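Student:
Attend to each token:
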Amino acid sequence: MSLVALGMALIDAVKSGDRSAVESLLESGADPNTADLFDGLTALDHARRGGHDEVARLLLDRGASPAERRGSAPESSTAPGEPEAGLTREALLAQLAAMIGGPGADVAACLGADVAGQVEAVAKKGRGKA
């Protein structure tokens, strides 16, 4: 399973409060700091907002960064579907570049040419090739 698929599955399992599925996905290599590609919230943010305390503790035990260390608040006044205030568009694009921008990845096929160009630019900037 790709890192993107693992991340999406982790977010879905966290949202539903399925502790055993979250544990299994983490054991399979899912990143506990995965951010939802649709709203920018992390798995931990979703666990906290959903009242899934056991899942939140599991994510923290597996290395998830608490909101206080990321610089954003656990509760947000942003509208659903809007990125979290602490996560910039560039930060989200950088995460995408890291997840799908590996050797042989066809970013344009995954995201479309416009977004792919932005992801590629962010990835090059992150590698010091801006």
